[in-house]
Amino acid sequence: MPELPEVETIARALAPRLLGRRISEIRILSGRVASGNAARIAACLRGRVITALRRRGKYLIVELDGAMLTIHLGMTGSLLWNGTPGPHTRAEFVLDGDRLL
User: How many domains does the chain have?
Assistant: First the structure.
């Protein structure tokens, strides 16, 4: 499980790449990713701008204009910037400029 220092490192590394970017699409690839209706959550976040990225305990908090997204990396989770989706990819975030998280 990613420990607190690793989560902080992820937040600091991604912040410069994510801040100010608009979420143009979210692809939920696994039903285990979201609590609730995944399609509704994706629709709610689409078009929002990322305003802050911070850590609270082992959670990543993505602050958006008018919403918030909480991410827990579970036992072996990671976030990849422009990574090639692998067999264990659970969700993809397409940001303006076709940047993929």
Answer: 1
Tell me the pLDDT tens digit for each residue of 47-63.
999 999 999 999 999 99
Q: Is 69 in a helix, a strand, or coil?
A: strand
The residues pairing with 55 across neighbouring beta strands, listed in sequence order, are 60
Cα torsion through 52, 57, 58, 61, rounded to 10: -20
Q: Which residue has the tokens 């929002």?
A: 48
Distance CA 24, CA 15 (A): 18
pTM for the whole thing? 0.85
Q: Which domain holds residue 42?
A: 4-100
- Compute the radius of gyration of the chain from its Cα atoms: 13
What CATH number corresponds to the domain at position 18? 3.20.190.10
Which residues have a catalytic role annotated?
Answer: 2-3
